[in-house]
Amino acid sequence: MTIQPPEIVAAVDLGSNSFHMIVCRLKDGKLHTIDRLREMVRLASGLNEDKFLSQEVQDRALACLERFGQRIRNFPPGSVRAVGTNTLRSAKNSNQFLSLAEAALGQPIHVISGIEEARLIYLGVAHSLESNGKKRFVMDIGGGSTEYIIGKHDQPRRKESVPMGCVSMSNKFFANGVISSKKFRQAVLYAQQQLEPYEKAFSSKRWDEAIGASGTLRAINKVLQTNEWSNEGITLSGLEKLVDFIIQHNHVDELSLPGLDPERAPVFPGGLAIIYGSFRSLGIEQMTVSDGALREGLVFDLLGRIFNKDIRSDTAQTTAEHYHVDLVHAARVQNTIHYMLKQLKKCPPLSLEESSQFLNWAAILHEIGHEIAHNQYHKHSAYIIKYSDLAGFSQQDQNLLSTIVRGHRRKLPKKMFKELPKPWHKNAIYLTLILRLAVLLHRNRHDFDLPDYKISIDNKTINLDFPPQWLQNSPLTHADLMQEAEYLNAADFILEFK
Q: Is 485 within the bounds of a domain?
């Protein structure tokens, strides 16, 4: 828990179309926006058929992040959240790019799933509007994906992320800016096909009001208002007039459309096809547009972490309950982890606040694989953690947590740690060692207190010092420690105990 909250926080959204940054001041418990930065990077346009980001678009993105980084250069640790979305989820060379991007921005960047993106979008929208008790349908068109959410108050209830966005749709159907009536019809049909599996769940019968978020929907709304095709937000009748106007032109360069920013024109037809297809498939007649979106959601999520209301802890708890984890046993393991960490404050990998968090989550989730099979359950647990939609967790978070859990028993494959980002490629193995020992000491699952013992870690050597005669009186634990020493020796660690 942060003792002294930062006065200023920031959120950075590396979207597939635009990069955004919002800077806010915390004053008297309220949030005040003091700066916004936005650059049209079009990251998705640099993704080739083999799913590799081109050098040209990488250079453009890195230049933008260096400018963003200058603005937040002196921000304290924990006061900035930066996330990547659809294109960075898809790119095969995203890890290589992220390493450069983090250096340019000066902050860690986490890639989030489409479902997590949807959750954050709804959070941003909900906090930008007054709560009215109605069921809200929220839609956000990004550069590479479109998110659909139904929620009430500040709680999303149904979330989906569909892999189509204004950049990817424009590249697919309006390559080089060429427009035709046939191409537009094909684009709308494609959007409806992508939405078809979710049509019933997001039908207008299931919510009370529709709200749009993102630059694409704000741009469409502005064009409709400017041309007096709608005076009540985005309407179906207004969209039909806009579509009629668009298909009368042969190229985006010919779109002399009042209210349309020329910078957005190249991806405007793709975004329009998505919203028009969505209106028709879901029975939407009218949609208002919110100022809040992903970056605002990021800020509020960051505040939760700062004020010890991290949704990841709630997610770990509900996931454990879903998989019928023995929560009493998980609490034993957690308590032992805390006991060890108090003695290991001088071990740098274990002195980090994040280390304690991830070990807490690992303790409560390490046995969820029992729900699938008892044999090799640690591998099942790791798989579930890595590939589930876990609210609040980024892909990097889940990979780290999955790795710790995967290594908590039996053989300790060192190579899996090397695939983690810095600093976890070196630190995570120490977290795994602590989880292994905590689980081992409670292997009999009896409800009794362990004796006061000492633990220390010096590079590759782990020392456990128990009270006299305790190990002799605990032959099973002694045997388990003997076996553990063999496992760790194979991983180049030495376990000494007495």
A: no
